[in-house]
Amino acid sequence: MNYHKIFADICSEIHQKEDKGVVASYIPELKKVDKDKFGVYMSMINGEHSAYGDWEEKFSIQSISKVLTLVLAYKSEGEKLWKRVGVEPPGTPFNSLVLLEHENGIPRNPLINAGALVICDILLDTCSNPKEEFLDFVRELAGNDSLEYNQAVAESEKATSFRNAAAANLIKSFGNLKNKVDDVLDLYAYTCSIDMTCADLAHSFQFLATDGYDKKSKKQIISVSRSKRLNALMQLCGFYDQAGEFSVKIGLPGKSGVGGGIVAVLPDHYAIAVWSPGLNEKGNSYLGMEFLELFTTKTEYSIF
Amino acid sequence: MNYHKIFADICSEIHQKEDKGVVASYIPELKKVDKDKFGVYMSMINGEHSAYGDWEEKFSIQSISKVLTLVLAYKSEGEKLWKRVGVEPPGTPFNSLVLLEHENGIPRNPLINAGALVICDILLDTCSNPKEEFLDFVRELAGNDSLEYNQAVAESEKATSFRNAAAANLIKSFGNLKNKVDDVLDLYAYTCSIDMTCADLAHSFQFLATDGYDKKSKKQIISVSRSKRLNALMQLCGFYDQAGEFSVKIGLPGKSGVGGGIVAVLPDHYAIAVWSPGLNEKGNSYLGMEFLELFTTKTEYSIF
Amino acid sequence: MNYHKIFADICSEIHQKEDKGVVASYIPELKKVDKDKFGVYMSMINGEHSAYGDWEEKFSIQSISKVLTLVLAYKSEGEKLWKRVGVEPPGTPFNSLVLLEHENGIPRNPLINAGALVICDILLDTCSNPKEEFLDFVRELAGNDSLEYNQAVAESEKATSFRNAAAANLIKSFGNLKNKVDDVLDLYAYTCSIDMTCADLAHSFQFLATDGYDKKSKKQIISVSRSKRLNALMQLCGFYDQAGEFSVKIGLPGKSGVGGGIVAVLPDHYAIAVWSPGLNEKGNSYLGMEFLELFTTKTEYSIF
Amino acid sequence: MNYHKIFADICSEIHQKEDKGVVASYIPELKKVDKDKFGVYMSMINGEHSAYGDWEEKFSIQSISKVLTLVLAYKSEGEKLWKRVGVEPPGTPFNSLVLLEHENGIPRNPLINAGALVICDILLDTCSNPKEEFLDFVRELAGNDSLEYNQAVAESEKATSFRNAAAANLIKSFGNLKNKVDDVLDLYAYTCSIDMTCADLAHSFQFLATDGYDKKSKKQIISVSRSKRLNALMQLCGFYDQAGEFSVKIGLPGKSGVGGGIVAVLPDHYAIAVWSPGLNEKGNSYLGMEFLELFTTKTEYSIF
To answer: Which amino acids does the record list as binding substrate (chains A, B, C, D) (predicted)?
Structure first.
């Protein structure tokens, strides 16, 4: 099978599909993005890659950052991290605060907003300069020193994300945040605001396709076993309440963001990142999902 | 790597672990089982197998049957089946009726009780003699014509499962059951009551390790794509509200039953069934989970 | 103040109001009722009364029966009844099964369906012939020996009320029903099916305006203190999730039914029953609510 | 009947009852209160009064303030206030945030925390100097110019009430707060912090026993109809999730606070305030409830 041929074929077809997605509007800064952008980059573990469209253009990674903050916290905290955040799928969207209340302030998993807030709280304790250390970590994973926080996006989110503030205060009321609510919300907003290209994202996640080992830096970022656990978590929790549909139709561990990015991994084969700003009603990139479904269907290869 | 060696090593160690599980008591017939039973059977796609302990003893498959009824219904209904049942993880246990009410009688997935009731309702419409056809189907998959319903277990469940009756009536109130509630509950209780050995179960699920093709009968039970979808569903929904923990620790698609059985699949490698009647607080076999965690950890091989 | 004059004035105006209500359709038999029916009857404790329109015509009392079954069970069980059913308002409509599940099968109060099912379960234990004893009790309260169950309505409800069957099975699963689910549902359907006129209802509830004493039969139906408790329960729980609005706008203890009847009581003054089959979106008679709001506003007299 | 005699009799007995209550600890400042304090003051509409114990000692009125902020907002907003807050009982305690989320940021009623936050938001818009105007209003109702905010209590609450901050942010996320979250929380904390005596409270609420007319100031504080509506709201929503039990056992409109105060009204007869800092598990004064239950039982007079 030729991955690159299939990749190219789908790229040539994808524009015939109607983009039924809608650009995210809840963070004012994100509204400004051009809906017609489309980029995709596949990085194979053998060093080959395929790229198409706007793959060199930066966009806001948003929730995709939740995997990266988790990795950094997991490295220092280890398994005791799971005392403060669960590993179960979130159930339905409206449940975020509902389940948080029922389950005494322990978020269901680290890839939903509530869970990522707890992870940021951990980073505030374990890093001497959390924003700097996190940015350095992401730059190293991406192999790209030019990556930066997008301050306009971060401040825009901080000014408007009352629901995150509600979640953070509720978690705090249960004693599961150690730091000040405002400090947690600040770090959270900044980690979400990093701008990256499809290539950056595929490079950053490739260590999860190679059992935690990063070929670029020749470092074991995280152990084999933890690398598998991170993939399992992405599989179950990476797509809001569309995790099931993503698993059934696409069958890869991955994570989406409301900036329109999706990154996914086929262990032992490749990492892939796709970007199309129009979101479906679940908050996942509409054409991004279409592309990945075609790709795993035509390659006839997924984790299942 | 030698799967058989690792298998044997773990078998020789497993009895040193304390069995913290408790035998299911909510169905009176199931209480009678000897908690000390332990069996396991691995069937590799190359035809080899390993077996240990009480692998030839029959036990009640209970919820494991939900995968098998789903396969039979999926074969005849195809993708339109997903109009009546979802593909998302269940959220928390108490949610069963809660979410059913919120989501207008569409169960979250076919591997929870509510979803399996809808599947049984479909079988009542698509089969001329549902009990007979389902038993024939399971016998064929297992390659064992001696399999039978356990009438005592089925009747015991029917007499005591008021919560299933509640779910069925609630689904009916939303119009998502076509047949009589009692008929649906009857078929459901019988499909759960089949007695099988670890070997039977591993053989029955092996087609899901080989993209839907059953080597014994030389039949394509279900298409490649649907076989992958079934594995994805088991991954996300096969272990009640412990799906995340099972994925993170074990990393295989599978399904458990309150009879103490667990069956799991590593696509392109093996199907494995383990039986130990003591259940953890989530309703999954305590030692069965322990065995499988050791197995995928030591083989260093899972879907992730 | 002249109650009768105000009563007459409102009756002469009420037809100018548009009836925005809709006749209940979920029980097929109830759909047949003529929406234009309107009747009202006020029975004062001094023996006077006012009547208007279709006050002599029988209609299905439906949930109004919940107060009457409660009185009969309260007489024999006394305060230990509150171990099996609460006294708190129901919250929201969709909560019926939700809260039942959260609160371990103890219905929130005896005037919602779930609670009335528990009351019927009690009557099955405390009465030697529950249907006969209940009918005798209602006939005595109404002073009308011609009252009868409407078998067509009862059987229509039994055949279609899957949600009640769901609630009954859920309560049974928690051990809070002693009798068979079908027997409880049968008694429940029959008690709801009695046909009564506005005059019958006003007479039946008048003892709650006179501290539990029934002037007609010269019997203390229930003690002073329990009579007050029953009024308090009606105040908080008598109008589904519109209890607050009814209290704020009308300010009388009362109970409605989906047959379009509402009965209400001003202690030390009167009992009043109004009937208009069109229901508002909360299931309470649209014009019935309008009439009572005008009546307590113009008389400037309520319990508050 | 002699109210004063019954009042005195109960006062002489009340200390024989074990105080099973516990002093509120969630606001650090409140923990300092002496649990043995007990005071009660009844102000009859004919000008007579009875007093006992620590009726002249000030305590923190806490949630009792919710009625007073509501009255002030109701005076200026009128019925359009009900577009932003409901009139239905809250359901269960854990529902506060749950129902807020389900019901799109419209709190169920103005006497729960979420609802009082919306009322404070209204006061921030309608008053030029909300804190000063509210304090003036309470001083006038109480006929006591010495009343003050307790700054230590207010600041203690602001520093620790993360759950209120969660609710305020959630309401803001639905657009039902116009002002800054911190400003709303600040006003809320101050209004709760006023210290008053039993006599102050009974005087302040007496206008609700006289159809909105305040005899002291000879002013109609609010219209007859709105006065009745306020009583109805207290009846249904004044005691957290113990509203039903309070109605059934005591049968008076009223409001409690976690400072241990309860104020209640029998329209056309009296206003009564009782204070005992030990709270039952629902957050209502344990001995305060006992006193009021004895009082309405022995006087045989309630609204029902």
So the answer is: 63, 113, 157, 164, 188, 240, 258
